[in-house]
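Work Package 4 report. The design task specified in the project plan requires that, given a folded chain encoded as structure tokens, an amino acid be chosen for each position. We show below one input record used in the internal validation round.
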């Protein structure tokens, strides 16, 4: 009798056999009969697998029938047929092999059918399916729509987001994908470098799945890991960093098309430091903000025709050059100055190479890329300098032309041409008033005033090869003009108001102060210093800039304002300002250096002309006022940041006291070489006469000179000597009033007008002290006694260019000193200077009875 297990096995075998028979008759045989002979390899492979499945199915059915028959025999004759007769036991290996063949064939067919189905559904995405790309989510599993792209399908891989739209496949690197929650429960936003999308699911649950998986995938891509967890089974993905550092090549049309950016990103836009490279060789290294060049950056632009580069080391604002910059062009020109919207605008200096065929330099104001406003143009080829107004890149308005020959012209220009009457001053002080040609040739009606006072008035013409032709009247009756009136022939005064000449320099500093001195704009508004190369070459070295600026400009300006507050006391203010003005990193020091640059561009070289002296000295005074105003502006910002009460605006008298008493002496050394040269040129003739007088007076022994100058003998400092006359002459040679003489010689050791006046005051004190010792009592010298003694001291001090020194002191001294002791002493020194120039001083001959021994 059979046990129940054998009966149950019999029923299973019967069912399995019947199932195999139905599959064969209903599925496999119809498929084989209906499938034509395929022509493609893929179809032939599918047919082969189907035939193999049919054969393995038939073989398995046969084995199952044989096993079923052995079970039936065992159940019919349980006593005579043992278990060992069952096929499952006696042929177990064969049965297992047949089953394995069937399962293998069936699995192969199922896999092929599955791939066929996927191929029909996916079309192009089979390219992305590879071991390197793991599919994380499909919009056909959890529907989601994407706008505005309207993609039919969305595939999220472990490193790429794919949007299928018709025949187009849009791929996005997950490292450059940002996820933002949407406005409602079914929507969230995806940001990429060039596009923004809105993902909308059918329900909040779908939105949660997609947003979680995209966020998780982006996080894993950024970390370089692929340990993906199931939604809800693991920890929440960390919040995605807004700022990243990735490389990306732009594809869409626009200014960045095909450009590659490598650097910092924030929310889909280049933001921070980075490098931008275009296929045509352009490179930009610097700071970016919301996708645009913003902050300091270096742009390298190749010039294919010349195999050179143009290099722009500038500050940028929203994609355009804006603020201070240094630009080196392929023409070997260099521009240092300000930009606005990518064009030269504000103050700037454009200079050609020294070896250029027509060297030139322009220092002045620009408007929208053109020279416009007040500026200095130097034409090296013509050997002349233009000082005046410009418009649309041409000389236009009032202007002064100075030539290498010492000729000066002042008049009006229109479209780069001289128009109307003007004034011409020659090196020998001849004055012409009339009309000119571009080359400053006299033409038309005019009047010439010669140095001797003669005048020539009439019509002038200058024909080729004929020289200057004149038809007019020569007046020889006039007296020679007063030398002081000739010195007053100064150009530019009134034509260019001093307060408006260099607004392009003052303006950025005022903007900096009005903006409360932001550290990040310090360089853009106040400029920076960098070594520039004259020779542009194809080199990546231009993608770096060694600027002499502090690493943290924000903290630097904070330190500057803090130090400024600590030195508000009048005693501490002077050393503080001296230190600040000498520091090229301090805002005041930067401003002073730019003003020095403009001063040198105007008054050195060709511009060193005596007829520009007044123009220069009033400019220096204006710079002192502007620097004091700049200091006060910084002080107000410092007080405001500390929440302290702001200082009240000072009156004009107080301001003048600070400017002339404090600032002017501090900045004068910066302008002194150029300024004093102009004074030397203006007073050259008087100083020449003075020098002759000094040379002649130096031949006198002390006693003879004192006698010649009518110094009263009781004031002579010789009473303590008991030597013979000859011995006395030898001993006291250049020894009388020695302390006063040595004191006066120190007047040339300083450039500060006040210190020069203090030297003069000490000299006066030494003279009085010497006289008081001689008289044995304190004695105040009246002017009649002081003047000859002072002439004696001046003659023995032998100060060169005393006239230039006196006039510079007079022009630069504090107006508050007018009418005081300093004014009196300076007037006395000036009187001595004029006396020494007189003919009797210069031509005095020593008596023939004086022997050589008596002279010395």
């Amino acid at each position: 009798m059979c046990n129940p297990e054998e009966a149950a096995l019999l029923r299973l075998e019967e069912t399995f056999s019947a199932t195999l028979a139905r599959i064969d008759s209903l599925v496999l045989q119809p498929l084989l009969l209906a499938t034509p002979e395929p022509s493609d390899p893929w179809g032939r492979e599918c047919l082969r697998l189907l035939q193999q499945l049919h054969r393995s199915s038939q073989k398995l059915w046969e084995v199952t029938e044989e096993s079923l028959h052995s079970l039936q025999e065992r159940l019919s004759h349980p006593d005579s047929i043992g278990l060992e007769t069952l096929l499952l036991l006696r042929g177990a290996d064969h049965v297992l092999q047949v089953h394995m063949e069937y399962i293998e064939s069936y699995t192969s067919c199922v896999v092929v059918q599955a791939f066929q189905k996927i191929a029909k559904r996916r079309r192009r995405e089979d390219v992305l399916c590879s071991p390197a790309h793991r599919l994380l989510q499909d919009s056909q599993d959890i529907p989601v729509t994407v706008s505005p792209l309207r993609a039919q399908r969305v595939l999220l891989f472990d490193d790429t987001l794919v949007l299928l739209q018709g025949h187009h496949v849009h791929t996005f690197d997950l490292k450059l994908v940002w996820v933002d929650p949407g406005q409602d429960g079914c929507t969230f936003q995806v940001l990429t470098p060039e596009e923004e999308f809105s993902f909308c699911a059918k329900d909040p649950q779908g939105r949660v799945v997609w947003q979680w998986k995209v966020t998780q995938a982006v996080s894993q891509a950024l970390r370089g890991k692929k340990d993906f967890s199931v939604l809800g089974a693991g920890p929440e993905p960390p919040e995605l960093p807004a700022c990243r550092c990735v490389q990306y090549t732009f594809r869409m049309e626009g200014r960045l098309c095909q450009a590659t950016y490598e650097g910092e990103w924030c929310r889909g836009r280049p933001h921070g430091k980075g490098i931008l490279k275009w296929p045509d060789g352009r490179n930009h290294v610097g700071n970016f903000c919301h996708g645009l060049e913003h902050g300091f950056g270096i742009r390298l632009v190749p010039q294919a025709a010349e195999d050179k580069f143009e290099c722009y080391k500038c500050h940028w604002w929203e994609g355009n050059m804006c603020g201070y910059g240094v630009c080196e062009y392929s023409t070997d020109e260099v521009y240092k100055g300000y930009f606005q919207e990518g064009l030269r605008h504000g103050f700037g200096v454009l200079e050609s190479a020294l070896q250029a065929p027509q060297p030139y330099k322009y220092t002045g104001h620009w408007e929208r890329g053109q020279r416009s406003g007040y500026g200095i143009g130097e034409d090296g080829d013509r050997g002349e300098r233009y000082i005046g107004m410009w418009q649309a890149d041409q000389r236009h308005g009032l202007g002064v032309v100075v030539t290498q020959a010492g000729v000066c012209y002042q008049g009006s220009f229109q479209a780069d041409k001289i128009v109307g009457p003007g004034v011409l001053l020659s090196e020998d002080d001849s004055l012409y008033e009339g009309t000119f040609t571009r080359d400053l040739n006299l033409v038309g009606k005019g009047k010439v005033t010669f140095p001797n006072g003669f005048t020539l008035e009439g019509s002038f013409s200058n024909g080729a090869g004929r020289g200057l032709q004149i038809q007019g009247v020569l007046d020889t009756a006039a007296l020679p003009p007063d030398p002081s009136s000739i010195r007053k022939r100064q150009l530019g005064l009134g034509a260019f108001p001093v307060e408006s000449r260099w607004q392009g320099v003052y303006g950025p500093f005022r903007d900096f102060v009005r903006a409360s001195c932001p550290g990040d704009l310090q360089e853009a508004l106040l400029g920076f210093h960098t070594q520039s190369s004259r020779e542009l070459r194809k080199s990546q070295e231009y993608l770096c800039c060694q600027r002499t600026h502090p690493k943290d400009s924000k903290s630097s300006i904070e330190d500057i304002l803090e130090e400024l507050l600590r030195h508000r006391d009048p005693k501490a203010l002077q050393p503080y300002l001296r230190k600040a003005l000498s520091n090229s990193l301090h805002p005041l020091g930067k401003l002073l250096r730019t003003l020095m640059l403009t001063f040198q561009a105007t008054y050195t070289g060709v511009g060193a002309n005596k007829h520009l002296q007044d123009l220069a000295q009033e400019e220096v005074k204006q710079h002192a006022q502007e620097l004091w105003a700049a200091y006060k502006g910084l002080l107000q910002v410092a007080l405001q940041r500390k929440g302290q009460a702001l200082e009240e605006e000072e009156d004009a008298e107080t301001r003048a006291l600070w400017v002339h008493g404090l600032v002017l002496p501090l900045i004068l050394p910066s302008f002194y070489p150029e300024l004093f040269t102009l004074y030397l040129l203006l007073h050259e003739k008087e100083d020449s006469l003075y020098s002759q007088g000094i040379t002649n007076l130096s031949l006198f022994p002390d006693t003879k000179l004192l006698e010649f100058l009518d110094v009263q003998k009781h004031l002579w400092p010789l009473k303590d000597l008991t030597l013979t006359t000859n011995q006395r002459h030898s001993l006291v040679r250049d020894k009388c009033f020695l302390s006063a003489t040595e004191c006066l010689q120190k007047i040339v050791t300083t450039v500060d007008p006040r210190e020069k006046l203090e030297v003069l005051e000490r000299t006066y004190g030494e003279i009085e002290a010497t006289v008081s010792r001689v008289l044995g009592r304190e004695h105040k010298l009246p002017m009649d006694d002081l003047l000859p003694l002072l002439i004696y001291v001046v003659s023995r001090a032998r100060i060169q260019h005393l006239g230039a020194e006196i006039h510079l002191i007079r022009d630069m001294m504090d107006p508050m000193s007018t009418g005081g002791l300093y004014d009196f002493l300076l007037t006395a020194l000036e009187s001595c200077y004029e006396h020494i120039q007189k003919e009797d001083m210069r031509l005095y001959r020593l008596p023939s009875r004086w022997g050589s021994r008596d002279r010395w």
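The mean pLDDT is 83. Validation will be extended to a larger panel in the next phase.
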